[in-house]
């Protein structure tokens, strides 16, 4: 499963709970319709994912996607967080996974699980591991569960907190492998992220990295699969989306992101997204309504 670029994902929380189970409690063999993070707070669990087995101890997490036959079993009395989510959903409103969970025969456990890949700036393609220990997960997962179980949960807030959790996971995984994969264009990427309003030229960006412009352009495309101009436009649009959902004024957004007028900003935004800034803001408000009744 190729998720695409980390900056482009629109995660949606489908289910979130903190729960406990006695020793020997098992889920599966089964397949789920989305992705799941299973984090052990205390106790121990075993994940059989295809032909592989992973011991999930306190402070560790299991991760798997939709085409991954598995059995999850608690080996001792266990407290845990369970999050079901989609990586890129048009609406942040949760879609409970219960109706999409399918029991499968034991024979399917011989199948290899589907790997999940996504692209990360300054790194390239990252394959998410099925078993990991990531610092700081518990407070964010707790906040997701609290919001999901609130009397009137806010889907956009759930999306924002899920994005925070996924970004933290990806960031820590990338940092661990930094010694094996160091971006040659990180200085340019950071400059465009931190100062998107600048009219960056290829020569200026190349100088930041210490390369000739033609060689820099080649390296840039190899790492992020686009050219510097399109990357800068995409970064401006990404930051504009966040600002619109925060309720900032159009002229303030346009000025900060380097547009010479609101008209130019609006035209460019609609070209890239298919919506005017006002339409995008209104759509975000409409999506943040109440969840409605969910099945148990």
Automatic annotation (TrEMBL):
Record-linked InterPro entries: AraC-bd, HTH_AraC, HTH_AraC-typ_CS
Disordered as annotated region, ranges: 273-296
Protein name: HTH-type transcriptional activator RhaR
Keyword hit for Transferase: no
Keyword terms of this UniProt record: DNA-binding, Transcription, Transcription regulation
Pfam families per UniProt: AraC_binding, HTH_18
Organism the protein comes from: Paenibacillus solanacearum
Sequence ranges assigned to domain HTH araC/xylS-type in this UniProt record: 186-283
GO MF annotation list: DNA-binding transcription factor activity; sequence-specific DNA binding
PROSITE patterns: HTH_ARAC_FAMILY_1, HTH_ARAC_FAMILY_2
Domain of life: Bacteria
């Amino acid at each position: 499963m190729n998720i695409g670029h980390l900056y482009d994902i629109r995660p949606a929380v489908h289910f979130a709970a903190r729960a406990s189970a006695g020793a020997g409690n098992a889920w599966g063999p089964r397949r789920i319709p989305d992705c799941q993070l299973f984090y052990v707070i205390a106790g121990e669990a075993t994940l059989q994912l295809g032909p592989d087995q992973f011991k999930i101890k306190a402070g560790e997490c299991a991760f798997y996607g939709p085409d991954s036959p598995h059995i999850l079993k608690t080996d001792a009395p266990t407290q845990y967080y369970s999050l079901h989510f989609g990586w890129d959903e048009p609406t942040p409103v949760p879609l409970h996974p219960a109706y999409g969970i399918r029991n499968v025969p034991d024979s399917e456990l011989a199948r290899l699980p589907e790997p999940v890949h996504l692209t990360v700036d300054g790194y390239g393609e990252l394959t998410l591991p099925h078993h990991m220990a990531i610092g700081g997960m518990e407070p964010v997962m707790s906040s997701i569960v609290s919001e999901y179980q609130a009397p009137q949960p806010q889907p956009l807030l759930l999306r924002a907190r899920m994005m925070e959790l996924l970004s933290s996971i990806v960031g820590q995984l990338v940092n661990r492998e930094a010694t094996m994969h160091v971006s040659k264009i990180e200085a340019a990427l950071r400059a465009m992220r931190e100062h998107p309003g600048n009219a960056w030229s290829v020569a200026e960006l190349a100088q930041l990295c210490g390369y000739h412009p033609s060689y820099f352009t080649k390296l840039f495309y190899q790492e992020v699969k686009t050219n510097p101009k399109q990357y800068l436009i995409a970064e401006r649009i990404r930051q504009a989306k966040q600002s619109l959902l925060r309720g900032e004024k159009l002229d303030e957004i346009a000025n900060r992101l380097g547009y010479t007028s609101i008209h130019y900003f609006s035209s460019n935004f609609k070209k890239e997204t298919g919506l005017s800034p006002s339409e995008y803001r209104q759509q975000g408000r409409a999506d943040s309504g109440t969840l409605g009744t969910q099945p148990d």
